[in-house]
Amino acid sequence: MSKSIDKVFSSGLYIAYFFIAIALVDFIIVIARGRTTLKKREAFFTPLTWILIIGLISMIMPVSAFSKGLYTFCMNGGMIVWFVREIYRRFENY
Hints:
It is a single chain. The chain is mostly helical and 94 residues long. It has one domain. Helix content is 78%, strand content 0%. The chain is built from three helices and no strands. It has helices at residues 2-32, 47-60, 65-92. It is elongated. The termini are far apart.
């Protein structure tokens, strides 16, 4: 029973990654075109960058509960890292 639930959750996770990837690619394009207050170089440091880094680290790790948890956390973790970085950037100028 748990194997079939794992397959359902796994496919749902990939679908969520697909939809967030579409939104983040659009976000990168908007930044790169200069249509935001962010500098164009910030297009390289969007949440997608951090999601890919965290996901890559989790895939390199040996298969374990931690690596699977890290992989499922990579979307949220990428957003958290990006927001913390943006908050830091905003307040370092004060």
